[in-house]
Write a structure and sequence with these properties.
The protein has about 350 residues and is mainly alpha-helical. The protein contains 7 helices and 5 strands. Among the domains are: about 1-35, no CATH class; about 160-180 and about 220-325, no CATH class. Its main location: membrane.
């Protein structure tokens, strides 16, 4: 998943904000409280090249033995030049890679022998010699794009176990609501279809596979089925969408301390984004529940999709609404809309 270009909080320095162009950070950082300009920052002029220090010139009036007479003294010795045996090299000279330092040569501070060469007698290695310098290969700074666990809005991503527990709590509440509101319709449907299924089970126990003479299903069974699905659809919609629109949390999410937030900008989802998110989460599976189990299959695929999405752990309904589920720190204030200065987020 690619993050849209824009100004975001710098994960390396949360006190500043930088511009993300979709592939990397560009431009100089600005304070996080400062209103970012529209569009990318102006292109900075390239730094002036630093002149390389000139090689030390030999002492006036002297020329090291073996130094070519055609080279000016200020240019330093040519590449690969070594002082003849028994002579001292000019000040600042260092042996070329793979060459043995001459006897009596004093290395400058911080000098290290090249691979395959022996240091001169009395040489002391500098601190940290032989240890790896800098970060290990493949290391990624925390919070930068490409890391396995990004932190949207500075918050840790919710684990799959937390999301599953929250959804089971919500299902338990919805089951109780359906039992209270849909109970009469379910009872009437059972009365309409009861004689048919009792006879089917009786013949199955007796080993009778014939379908002749089975009691007919009541004419009102289809109407009761449609009523049950419509009521379940409305209860789930009324339970989930308003709660997610106002604070990004249902009862289950509050108990598990997780919240759905937009990927970029704003602290609340709003009704439109919450409805778009729920359409794939519960709307379509509920309407397709009677189509040979297609609704259940769609719901299972959506429920398992965070396990295979990296690094944002988004379900299919999260991808549709451009949301992500994060953990809520203890003691965090409730989400309130801030349309004038929305917080940045870490890709």
């Amino acid at each position: 998943m690619s993050v849209q270009p824009g100004w975001y909080v710098d994960p390396a320095d949360p006190e500043t904000r930088r511009y993300w162009d979709g592939e990397g950070w560009i431009g100089a950082p600005i304070p996080v409280d400062e209103t970012p300009p529209e569009g990318p920052p102006p292109v900075e002029p390239p730094p002036a090249p630093t002149p390389e220090p000139a090689a030390p010139a030999p002492v006036a009036g002297t020329t090291p033995p073996g130094w070519p007479t055609s080279a000016p003294p200020a240019a330093g010795p040519p590449p690969g030049w070594q002082p003849p045996p028994g002579t001292q090299p000019p000040p600042g000279w260092q042996p070329p890679p793979g060459a043995q330092p001459p006897s009596g040569w004093q290395p400058p501070p911080g000098w290290q022998p090249p691979p395959g060469a022996q240091p001169p007698p009395g040489w002391q290695p500098p601190p940290g010699y032989g240890q790896q310098a800098g970060p290990p290969p493949g290391w990624t700074p925390p919070g930068w794009p490409g890391q396995a666990s990004p932190r949207p809005h500075g918050l840790a991503l919710a684990g799959y176990g937390q999301r599953l527990a929250a959804r089971l709590i919500d299902f338990g509440i919805l089951l109780l609501l359906n039992a209270a509101v849909n109970g009469w319709f379910i009872w009437q449907l059972a009365q309409e279809m009861g004689p048919y299924w009792r006879e089917v089970f009786r013949r199955a126990e007796a080993g009778d596979t014939s379908a002749e003479g089975l009691p007919s299903i009541g004419e009102q069974a289809g109407g009761f089925q449609l009523a049950i699905v419509a009521i379940a659809f409305g209860l789930w919609l009324a339970y989930e969408v308003p709660a997610m629109a106002s604070g990004g949390q249902t009862v289950g999410k509050r108990l598990m301390r997780i919240r759905a937030v937009p990927l970029a900008g704003g602290q609340t989802l709003g009704f439109g984004r919450s409805l778009s998110r729920w359409n794939l989460l519960g709307g379509m599976p509920t309407l397709l529940c009677c189509c040979f189990g297609l609704g259940l299959l769609l719901y299972l695929i959506d429920a398992l999709s965070p396990l295979f999405d990296h690094p944002m752990r988004q379900a299919l309904h999260d991808k549709r609404a451009q949301t992500v589920v994060v953990q809520v720190p203890r003691g965090a204030a409730p989400a309130t809309p801030d349309r004038t200065n929305p917080p940045g987020d870490t890709p």
